[in-house]
Amino acid sequence: MDNSWIVKQSAFKEADIGKYESLFSLGNGNLGLRGNLEERESTYRKGTYINGFYETEPIQYGEWAYGYPEENQKIIPLPEGKLFEFYAEGKQFSTADGTDHSRILNMKEGHMIRTFKWKVRNGLVITVSITRMVSFVVPSMAVQILRFKFDGNINSLRVVSSLETQKQSQDPLHKDPRAGSLSGADSLKKIKSFRDGLMDVCGYKTKRSNLVLAAGMDHLLLSGEYTAAEYRQKEGGSSFVFDFTDPEEDIVLVKFLSYRQGDNSDTAIALCRADLASAGEQGVDYLKMEQIRYLRKFWEKSDVKLPRNEELQKVLRLNLFHLVQSSGKNGKTSVAAKGLSGDGYDGHYFWDSEIYVVPFFQFTSPEIARSLLLYRYSILDKARERAQELSHKGALFPWRTINGREASAYFPAGTAQYHINADIAYSINRYLESTDDLDFLVTAGFEILVETARFWYDLGNFIPSKNGAFCIHEVTGPDEYSALVNNNFYTNIMAKDNFQAAVKWYDWLKKNDYSSFMDITKSLKIQKDERAHWETAAQKMYLPFNEEYGIFPQDDSFLDRPVWDIKNTPSDKFPLLLHFHPLTIYRFQVLKQADVVMALFLQWNKISFEKKKRSFDYYEKITTGDSSLSAAIQGVIALELGYVQKGYEYFLKTLTMDYDDVNGNVKDGIHTASMGGSWILVVYGFAGMRVGDNLLHFSPHLPLEIEQISFRIQYKKMQLEITLEQDFITFLLLSGKSLNLSVNKSIIELFRGEKSVMAISK
Questions:
Q1: From the CA atom positions of the chain, what is the Rg in Å?
Q2: Of 55, 480, 530, 620, which is the active-site residue?
Q3: Angle made by CA atoms 341, 344, 345, in degrees to the nearest 5
Q4: What is d(CA 733, CA 722) in angstroms, rounded to the nearest whole number?
Q5: Could you tell me the domains of the chain?
Q6: What digits encode the pLDDT tens for the residues 475-513?
Q7: 690 pairs with which residues across the strands?
Q8: What pLDDT sits at residue 172?
Q9: What is the secondary structure of 370-398 as a DSSP string?
Q10: pLDDT at 184 over 50
Q11: Is 480 among the catalytic positions?
Q12: Which residue, 51, 33, 50, 14, is CA-closest to 112?
């Protein structure tokens, strides 16, 4: 197979355990299996997760104040079904006994294969191959296929297959806030079980969140014959012990796993049993075939091709593969900062979902983008409650959450990041612009736009000392090294965009779907003057600009602070958040991540080139990049400004964030935002794509290191293929009758099946 479709680990090294557990995670958006080995030993952290399945725990405060969140939600590891023990002639296999270790992640077919050799004694070597797959077609199912090949005569082989609960291992006093705060308490209680032959299903319930889960395993022997199969029940699970005496052929054993939620244990267990029975009847080949079929369709729409650059190609595909593995597809879950690869950040959803991940799906698999946005609609009532709790109208979405309740215990870098509202509204508006999904507008999108606009209007004020401008005080922008400031530029310009989106779709519905308009205005009790209020607030939004520097100040007081001496700060003092008190950091001009520069990207058509250039140049010098979210956005703007080499360097950092473990913490899980950012850098950076005025705009900037790059996007139900080369950009309309584009501000018309080649101006 083409090596750009596989990621390979050629040797087992203790130091790399955590990294490869994350990189080799498998998932389908609902179920995720961390890439830990089958043995109990040699593990950084075991993990099997269901997206959105969590436990709650009281947040402990030294000093409590009104409105502080009372409970944290934490994604919890499910009963572990990847576990096996191997015994040959009475001797148990240990990872250290193996040689020729290899693991291959096959991104084209959606599985991982692990192989190793085990020299039991002179004259007997066992080659073990283990295939692991999480089904995209059956969201609750995973499968493992074990093959034992013997070089020499063997008297006995024992295989122990287990499914059992795991203790949560995270130290609650761990000082890295990125790693999560799992307490170590057992969250799942086994309440019921069912066994039939080689199938065993157990029902569990969480102690505090009262969520019900069933976890089950079943087995199928495809080759060989066992002499005994013993069932062993445990407190938190069970095992099957398979004994093979004097095997004369290869042994191939299949293990099916199913994880199901339900309203009660009987329902969940019944669903698990049905999964396992169906899998046994259909067989492994069927699951493999359906997996390949699903991924073939995914890659046809989503692949980014980098001919003659195999290494970059592989890493880019790895990032996109993890995005589709991590993202919820049922409208009730989103995509966590670490996906389903680990418990970093407690499995919470942040703004990463809307700003870094939704764009990828919006233009490749709009149905997944829709599902991610529907998750926000599913928690809208809780967002309304949170706004009331903070004495505001409308809705305030949580900064970090699973179930819709705010879970951020540090409000200066949590609740105060009110921009989450505008980020969600921005994503909804851009999704509607690119898909024309009017059903989503009527059933979910407009309601969120209204409630977030209401919130902003209530939060801000028209300030006489600012000539009556609409100002927003005591907020934190994307840069978490500044907190509780007045008129954060990003927040204000995004709130303005939120107002404008609410007005735009209000007017559209009134003109084009009056019946729905009347139903919604009645349901939401929209007053006649509200639309005018939103429009006025947008028009009068205060957007600070410093004439002396020619830049947008990050906030009202930012430029009054001294500049942090990044150049002379020892390298072992980064990230700053792990080595300096927040108050120390807050007193300086220093950025964790792009803030104003993020606004330059998202509000691309509202800011002049010169202002972008001066602002980018100023903030780049004081940005640490301590956040994995930063490099992608800095890279896009660098390319837009013509800093092509610099943009390419940011691309490499973003692309390899996890593959090369740039930040040294991939052991706690992948960085979904950075992975989404690598696609953003290709499409918005190299191709210079923007959406506005009912047009796709392109302004390409391709680095010399990349000879050619091509990708496909879906826009308004039409599919477009774009190929970038050093001197040309080529467009091919694959579906749809015709499409107008803007290329370097010149309008061209495409017709289906015809290529259009444009020279790239340099």
A1: 27
A2: 480
A3: 130
A4: 9
A5: 7-58+68-300 (2.70.98.40), 403-627 (1.50.10.10)
A6: 999 999 999 999 999 999 999 999 999 999 999 999 999
A7: 697
A8: 46
A9: HHHHHHHHHTHHHHHHHHHHTT-SS----
A10: no
A11: yes
A12: 33
